Every structure is written in C-alpha cells, then in structure tokens.
Model the fold of this input.
Amino acid sequence: MNEENSWAVRLVDISQKFMVPRLKVRTLKQRVLMGWRVRQTYDEFWALRDVSITVAQGELLGIIGPNGSGKSTLLRVIAGIYRPTRGQVETRGRVYPLLELGTGFHEDLSGHDNIYLNASLYGLGRKQVKSRFDEIVGFAEVEDFIYAPLRTYSSGMTARLAFSIAIQVEADVLLLDEVFAVGDEHFVQKCLAKMREIWASGKTIILVSHSLTHVVNMCPRAIWLDHGQITMEGPSKQVADAYVEAVTAPPA
Done:
C-alpha cells in the first residue's frame, strides 16, 4: 500500500487556544456591587500546541496523559467539534466521536424508547435500530428492565445501554473518550472484546483512556500528551512505562 494514501487521520501543527475569563461574575448582585462598567478580561489558554500526528488506516492508537493535558480537546479537533486556532486537520471516511455516552437520554422514557431516541442522534434510522434492537438490549444486559423508565436504572445499567447503542455506529474512524468506564469488570471485558472485533474489521480507532492497562493491552502505539504537547510516542508499553516513571518520580 502506498504510504502516502494509507492514512486515516493527519494533524499538522495543530494548536487550540481558549479564552478563559479572569473575572467571574455569577449573579446580578455581584455585577451591581462591582459596577456595570467593570470590563471583563481574559487569559489565553493553549490546550494544544503544535501537535502533529498521523494515524494509519486500520490503526488502533492510544492517547494517555494527565487531566488537562489536551486529550479530549484533541479528539474534538479531529471530530470537527473545535476548529483549531492553527494547523491543519485531514480525515478520510466517516469520523464519529463517542465522547459523552448517553447524551440525549430522557430519564422518564423507557429503555426501549431511549434506544430509538439515542440511536437517532447517531444517525441510525428506525429500521436499522429495529433490526439491531435485540442485539443492543442483549449486549447491555438490560432485558428485564427494557420497558422500565430510565430513572429506575442504576448508573451502570444506563452506561451499559449507552455503550451498546453507540457501538452500532457505522464509521470508518471511531474516537473513544473513556468509554470503558461503563460498568463492572465483566462488562468492561465485553466492551474491550467488542472494540477488538471492530478494529479487526478494518476500522481506525483512537482511544483516550486513563487506564494504562487497557491502552497497553489494546493499542500497538500510544501517544503521551502533557500540557497540550506530545511528550512521547511509540510502542504503547514503552510510552506507558515512561509516563508512570515520570508521574511517580519524587519531586526534584
């Protein structure tokens, strides 16, 4: 395969800036006491700085790093949710972000109705959902509660149902942000097995996770982000070991 044509995602010198308000005014009373003419000021916050990544078609790439390192921002840039301040984003095929599972769920509707509602947000038609309904319910292990209101579900049941719906998405590139925090160990292993199955079908997957074990076991390659910059990239075991060594090292 021609290397030039084998990529699925390509980022060139991506930087993402946010303007953070310095003065926080939460109530009308605060505004009156401080004066109406107080001018709001902002600080620049660079969530990403000069990040360049090429993800091959059919690759499963892991992204690790501490909170606030820019991992989720990176996925949102790839998905087109954020337009980068600088740099170039290129993707091939249909890119779908699974970032906030359960978005659009309505707690007063039954699990049955929420499946159709949530799946429609992923672009799945009613006929598609109907043909996969039993598979969705079975994978989520909520057969006995499918006609009960979602507000009666445990948080684990809700997360399992959300994940089960999300994996029905037909995409060439999947962006996953902490999607394995969806239940007990039994269900987590089911999710991991499903992701391996999707990857084996030729899909490209970019996985953000705080679980270094999951990244090492699933991803041949990993990238370590810190303060919006790439600290290291390479074989996932080497990157994870270096990250652990850095965060556990005593202060200088």
Observations:
- Helices lie at 28-34, 71-79, 111-121, 126-140, 155-166, 185-200, 212-218, 236-248.
- The longest helix spans residues 185-200.
- The CA atoms of residues 66 and 109 lie 37 Å apart.
- The chain has a mean pLDDT of 89.
